Automatic annotation (TrEMBL):
Organism: Cirrhinus mrigala
Pfam families: HA2_C (PF21010)
Source species, domain of life: Eukaryota
Name of protein: Uncharacterized protein
Length: 68
């Protein structure tokens, strides 16, 4: 996928997904707020699969945190 990503102009997205998959988890679920967390996560779920869900989460993070 990484090798052909330039053909589809999605190299940045592929590298982001690879990076997110290389860490334990980008999702934090405090037990006391489980229901709240699940409700928020539903906003990011993609019918295209878990990798796109991770990309949606990353994009939302970048949007609120800027380039910090």
């Amino acid at each position: 996928t990484l090798l052909i990503s330039p053909d589809f102009s999605c190299t940045e997205e592929v590298l982001t997904i690879i990076s997110l998959l290389s860490v334990d988890s980008v999702l934090y679920s405090p037990p006391a707020r489980r229901d709240d967390v699940l409700a928020v996560r539903k906003k990011f779920i993609s019918s295209e699969g878990d990798h796109m869900t991770l990309l949606n989460i990353y994009r939302a993070f970048k949007k609120v945190s800027g380039n910090k």
